[in-house]
Specification:
By secondary structure, the protein is mainly alpha-helical. The protein is built from eleven helices and no strands. The radius of gyration is 25 Å and the shape is flat. The chain starts with 11 loop residues before the first helix and ends with a helix.
């Protein structure tokens, strides 16, 4: 067995010990799940009356057509806004001009440090104040935009750091070769570095998209539409908080799996393993300028 450069390959005793640990841990997890199911059954949480709302067409229609669609819509707007925010402020943080770099740094660090729920509430009440305290404007649209703006700013700030780290991960020789053949910094950034950095950034960007989708569940605090809002209305009427939580969790897990699969397909389809050839790009730019 070939030894790793980081650690020696485990011997027979170590492999046997690892198998024992795996069996013990699996047994403990199964025991915990069995105990939880037994307690739920003992408390009557599996009674049909508590699960009936999620099998009733009217409630399913509200849960899927209203809650699911609103959740996906908020997530899509927030993700698109966060990507634009991240690229703009990520590139601005790498600017050679201090009057661009430092304000971008302040904005990114502020929104990264701000708890997203607090940010939603802050945006919501700023909306309320801007409408001169009129409760006529405090409806689901107010909550909707509060969630989208808060998630855009928070996740955009995180993606700005991802963009900066992705560009820094590109070998310095790429930029040096581009400068050596006469390319300007804006060309180096947009044509050479960013296209290669996207490949490095995509796993982190996919992870942040999942975070944005999950954080839409916090919108219930500002009366925003979505799955948690519909689920809240259901369990308040039928007093089935456990069942509502389980159903909402299953829906969120399914959405996150679909989002991850879609983002992974986009990565393989449009990024793949291709790399930027600086000399070829520069030749193309030169030929276009001559034409």
């Amino acid at each position: 067995m070939a030894a790793s450069v980081l650690f020696d390959a485990p011997g027979p005793a170590t492999r046997r010990r690892h198998r024992i640990y795996t069996v013990v841990a699996s047994a403990a997890i199964l025991a915990a799940i069995g105990y939880a199911l037994w307690k739920l059954n003992d408390d009557g949480q599996f009674e049909y009356a508590l699960w009936e709302p999620f099998l009733t067409p009217d409630y399913l229609r509200a849960l899927i057509l209203d809650g699911l669609v609103d959740t996906v819509t908020m997530a899509v707007f927030a993700i698109l806004g966060a990507v634009v925010f991240g690229f703009v402020f990520g590139v601005a943080k790498m600017s050679d001009h201090a009057f661009v770099r430092w304000p971008a740094w302040v904005v990114v660090e502020f929104f990264r440090a701000m708890p997203v729920l607090l940010l939603m509430i802050f945006v919501f009440f700023m909306w309320f104040i801007s409408m001169q305290g009129s409760f006529l404007w405090i409806d689901q649209r107010s909550g909707f935009f509060s969630v989208v703006i808060a998630l855009t700013c928070y996740n955009g700030a995180v993606l700005a750091e991802v963009v900066r780290a992705g560009v820094d991960a590109i070998p310095k020789g790429q930029a040096e070769a581009a400068y050596a053949i006469g390319m300007r910094k804006s060309q180096v950034m947009t044509i050479i570095l960013l296209p290669q950095a996207v490949k490095v950034m995509l796993p982190a960007m996919i992870s942040q998209m999942v975070v944005a989708l999950k954080d839409t569940s916090l919108g219930y605090a500002v009366a925003a539409p979505g799955l948690t809002k519909v689920g809240q209305a259901i369990y308040k009427e039928f007093h089935n908080q456990v069942q509502a939580a389980i159903v909402l969790a299953v829906l969120y897990v399914g959405l996150n799996l679909l989002l991850t699969a879609l983002a992974t397909w986009i990565q393989r389809r449009f990024v793949g393993e291709n790399k930027i050839d600086v000399v070829t790009v520069a030749a193309g730019i030169e030929s276009q300028s001559r034409a």
